[in-house]
From TrEMBL:
GO terms for molecular function: oxidoreductase activity, acting on the aldehyde or oxo group of donors, NAD or NADP as acceptor. This is Aldehyde dehydrogenase domain-containing protein. The keyword Ribosomal protein does not apply. Keywords: NAD, Oxidoreductase. It comes from the Eukaryota. The keyword NAD applies. Belongs to the aldehyde dehydrogenase family.
Amino acid sequence: MNKCCAVTLPAKMQDVNIQNYINGEWVAPTSGAYLKNYNPATGMEIAPIPDSKSADIDNAVRAAKSAFPMWSNMSGVERATILNCIADLIDQNCAALATFESQDQGKTVASAAAIDIPKCAEYFRQFAKYVTEGIRETESSMKLVCTTSSINKMVPSSQRATTQHVASGVAALITPWNFPLLMVCEKLAPCIAVGNTCVVKPTELTSVTSYLLTHILNAAGVPKGVVNIVFGSGVNAGEPLVKHRDVRLVSFTGGSVTGAKVGALAGGLFKRVSLELGGKCPSLVFSDCDLEHAITTHVRGAYQNQGEVCLSASRQYVQRDIYEKFLDGFRKQVCQEVCVGDPANPKTFYGPVVTKQHMEKVTSYIRLAQEEGAKVEFLVNPNDPAVMNVSADGRLTIEGLEGGYFIAPTLITGIKQSSRVMQEEIFGPVVCVAPFDTEEEGVQLANDTQYGLGASVWTEDQKKLERVMRQINSGSVWGNNWLAWDDCMPFGGMGCSGTSREHGPWSLEFYTETKVLYTHTI
Ligand code: NAD
């Protein structure tokens, strides 16, 4: 059971043959059909994706259900040994996984190797530690222990009440494409650490690293049926998984429109459901901030990972007296720092967006801003030798990668607060910047959204900082920072950004059922 073998991953993309992973075996989809898949930097076809359907989901859920009694009855220490082995194998294969992630998703190899892949390993180690050592108070303000005695006047003194957190059963884990492997591991680690078994349905747009993970799971000795990964579309594979009668719990990360469907389906069938959805994150930059720090962080916040980040700083409100200075500094910083191009080149800041369809969606918002009379600037680095041409709607032609889906770093000003460009999630390298006058107006603009995922506030006045941070309706608010991360803290959104909190102890809470045991002492 505790074997941790080395794993040999395919050497190159042409060798990747994506198959479903069900009951510890690699199997073709029952329909025999596959979806096309493209490298976004070149537009060339890469490993096709199984177009799985209900029959494949049935097989995977059956395998997960039959593995559940064995896995949930194993000790935390035994499960943790396997989780730590998964983490070690991810670390050992970081460079290869980062390269495949980049070729499938478009993000730079450097960012995948520095952020995505190491974080995957960290999640497995974190939850291995939780189920063996428990949670220290310093790691969280929420106390979650396996068994707590309660002192309650309503309970007779001869009776002891204790709570017990037990694994839920078979979980459905459904993930998006912007951090492909990271999103899978963020859910998978806590899910199986506490004893659930699962069926993972990764996004059909970036499935390669989830497939490679199956080889790591196998080498780490994950017993058959504990983790099943079924590839395919949301309609053909995702929906049957959410609806499956033997699935007790659904953890979904994706867009808000899909989240509403998944939430309605799962909720109507009384499943535990967690929805981590989109964002249109505001930042409020006051005139008394450290402007240089604010500008460099806002450039990163707008364009990191091609702007394909749910927490992207996509609405930046700047106090009027520093508005022009901020914009000048922002333009200068982008032109100095942001090179767009080959994601394998270490000098590239960001690569292509994920698909041709997504490029068309992003540029449709750019055209809308132009039609509405906003000022639209494409901040192309004059020293970026790879950029051959910028189209009227911001598409870039990159030398040697003419078939890729590249978009210029786009700055939009003079756009109305009510515009769809300001209100909807664009999920690309496009940022809207607008002025505000008073603190009250700033807060009102920041909160004028259907979303509530993340926000940041910039001022050197500590009292104002705390006052404003408290008034913003977001799951996470950063003060003089953006995306400083603590995995022991809860993550999730308000409104259309989601209904739940995961990460750290909050994941342990979500992935378990809470029971109360009333014991009568004789
Ligand atoms: P999406 O909603 O299109 O798809 C997400 C997943 O749901 C995919 O695996 C897809 O196949 C599946 N799916 C689609 N329809 C389904 C259905 N009817 N039933 C079940 N499953 C279905 O999202 P996307 O375009 O892949 O991802 C981008 C979105 O994800 C953005 O809105 C982004 O903000 C959001 N996101 C949120 C977070 C967060 O933690 N809040 C993190 C990353 C991404």
